[in-house]
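Figure caption, in words: inputs first, then the predicted bound structure.
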Amino acid sequence: MLKILFYDTKSYDKEFFEKERSHYPELQIEYLKSELNPATARFAKGYDAVCAFVNCEIGTGTVRLLHENKVRLILLRCAGFNHVDVEKAKELGIKVLRVPGYSPEAVAEHAMALALAANRKMHKAYVRVRENDFSLGGMLGVNFYGKTAGIVGTGKIGAAMARICFGFGMKVLAFDKYPNSGLDFATYVTMDELLSRSDLISLHCPLTDDTYHLIQESTIQQMKDGVILVNTSRGGLVKTEDLIKGIRARKFFSVGLDVYEEEKRNVFEDRSDEILESSVTARLLSFPNVVITSHQGFFTQEALSAISEVTLKNAQAFERGEKTGNEVE
Ligand code: NAI
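Bound structure (NAI present):
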């Protein structure tokens, strides 16, 4: 029997995992609302595994505490693992398993939803019509048809976004260290060329030391005036202060963000009663051409089903001493 402590449980997590759980009699799950971080890692005493999501803090301190409490497995119910000290986990013999590519289309479709919403000012239209205001001032958009999309990172999600853009009748430029041979309709170019030629830039590479602040003052300057920028990958890819300067300088036609540097405190929480003292999020939200969502790219029924299925398969394989191909090493 593998005992799993499930951190940061939301009602939808429980719903989807409980549906799946009956297929795995050798797994025992307890649900906790708290996030996994250095203050809560000790709750895992007596468990073999913890299950965590993107907003948990699984750095050196947390990993050490998990080890001290005899935890042998970190089950990430997400694809990204930049929030985990993988080296430390390896050194201490804790296995890390993740759910790669549970539904690339979920994130790619959200990236296009953000691009369209920000372009066609859906956020303003929704509010305006509810107030019986049917005027069109400030709503002017641009066609995507015939324009150029630049996809940064053409792994599973980037490739899905590239296909969506191609379906819209866009020319597709791509940049990746490892070009995807399946995208025969896309043209691979240098990052400089992608920046200077694209009307819509969508970020789909992981956050690494190489990609941290990939979008900052100098790269923003290289972009076309009136570019649309979408980030559904990780907040750290974009230097927010420089993005704000760029928006103020009228560089961007619109910006759609599902992730942003300050999201850690906000994501999946209801902070509607709080007064924000100082916040770059609030500054970003003050611009009429910016649309922000709360890291919800993954949030579809199909993705949640796939996440619960693969996470529990990972746990079962670990219990049986089998490899899954989902090891983070
Ligand atoms: P993937 O591993 O299939 O693809 C990532 C691609 O980025 C690879 O082709 C890789 O070669 C490329 N890449 C790496 N370094 C690069 C660089 N310096 N410049 C350009 N390309 C580079 O990953 P997948 O599944 O497509 O996910 C991409 C990212 O999306 C994840 O790292 C994660 O941060 C984010 N994500 C966001 C979600 C959301 O809810 N908003 C949900 C799931 C993932």
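DSSP finds eleven helices and twelve strands in the chain.
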